[in-house]
Design goal:
Elements: H1 10-17, E1 24-27, H2 34-42, E2 48-53, H3 56-65, E3 73-77, H4 83-89, E4 95-101, H5 106-109, H6 136-142, H7 145-156, H8 161-174, H9 180-195, H10 199-205, H11 216-227, H12 229-243, E5 244-254, H13 257-271, E6 291-293, H14 303-308, E7 316-322
Parallel strand pairs: 1-2, 1-4, 2-3, 4-5
Antiparallel strand pairs: 5-7, 6-7
Helix pairs in contact: 7-8, 7-11, 8-9, 12-13
Length: 323
């Protein structure tokens, strides 16, 4: 796996964060360190970055990549849902900017034994932090059918959730589903039957027709469930707002509609100046606006960026400023 990668929407993030030499910035999902590298360069000579990630393997690579900046960066293994506590442990109470680059990293997708990709044979794992107890295999093999259907519908928006779960239950009765390709084959079988295509034609034509791979939604749903991604996003946004200085900036890059909806909803909630019931004639809530939303619509990558970095194609950037 290459230790270099192209950070998504890098220039746009820098335009909004406006890194400065006296600033402290949190890269709450540092991954391989691409965004942090740019922030450190822009905030030369004394700006600092606090890099957080659940994935210890990513932190090892980020450490090597950023080593020339020495005392200007600190890496922490942890979940951004606990951002405030993680910063307090390092005696940091407020920061100038927070970046959340959500979703699975290229490192995780490209490492078969992490079990994130349906394109490689590997254990059905999907834990961003390998110290976590529950893997995707445990969820697939041990969850009752109703729970699996709910996971696939809510987190994957999978239209064939019930049929896929019936096939999963039948398969796991024969033997445990322990590999990525086992699960992908089950999903492919459902799509092949339902849409009257062979497995081979589905595998070879979904990209050409601009469609996603049939297993994409199921794998996304399991990853979200394993890592409690949506719950942690809500907590992480709350924490990010709580540590921002007035005028500080929070940037969030999402990669699917479930994440983007949460970011949009939370930003709007923080931007409200009044939370009185609609029919209240005069505001009595004394609610204080917390954020000013900068991006009424999400910032999307340019065509040239998508051509250079296919991972950027579904990215959406939303930005808000602490009041």
């Amino acid at each position: 796996m290459s230790e270099t990668h192209i950070p998504v929407l890098r220039n746009e993030v820098l335009d909004f964060l406006k890194p400065k030499p006296e600033g402290i910035y949190v890269d709450a999902t540092i991954g391989l360190g691409g965004h942090s590298l740019s922030i450190l360069k822009e905030s030369h000579p004394t700006g600092k970055v606090i890099g957080i990630d659940m994935d210890g393997n990513a932190l090892v690579i980020a450490q090597k990549r950023l080593q020339t900046f020495k005392e200007r960066f600190t890496l922490i293994q942890g979940n951004f849902a606990q951002l405030q506590q993680l910063l307090e442990a390092h005696r940091i109470n407020e920061v100038d900017g927070v970046l959340l680059d959500l979703g699975v990293s290229s490192l995780q997708l490209g490492t078969p034994n992490r079990g994130f990709s349906f394109q490689h044979l590997g254990p059905l794992d999907m834990r961003m932090d390998v110290r976590m107890r529950t893997s995707a295999a445990q969820i697939v093999n041990e969850s009752p059918p109703d729970k699996l259907i709910k996971i696939f519908k809510e987190y994957g928006e999978e239209r064939y959730a019930k049929r896929i779960v019936r096939h999963i239950v039948a398969a796991r009765t024969e033997k445990p589903i322990t590999s990525t390709l086992q699960l992908a084959e089950i999903v492919m079988g459902v799509y092949s039957t339902k849409e009257k295509h062979s497995k081979t034609s589905e595998l070879h034509t979904h990209r050409r027709r601009g469609q996603i791979h049939p297993a994409t939604r199921v794998f996304q749903a399991l990853r979200i469930e394993v890592n409690a991604e949506l719950d942690n996003l809500v907590l992480g946004l709350d924490a990010a707002v709580s540590v921002l200085k007035p005028g500080g900036c929070v940037c969030v890059i999402s990669f699917h509609s479930l994440e983007d909806r949460i970011v949009k909803r939370q930003f709007r909630q923080f931007a409200k100046t009044c939370i009185c019931p609609p029919k209240t004639p005069i505001c009595i809530c004394e609610h204080q606006q917390v954020l000013q939303v900068v991006t009424n619509r999400p910032i999307l990558p340019s065509t040239s960026e998508i051509e250079a970095n296919s991972r950027a194609r579904s990215a959406k950037l939303r930005v808000a400023i602490r009041v």
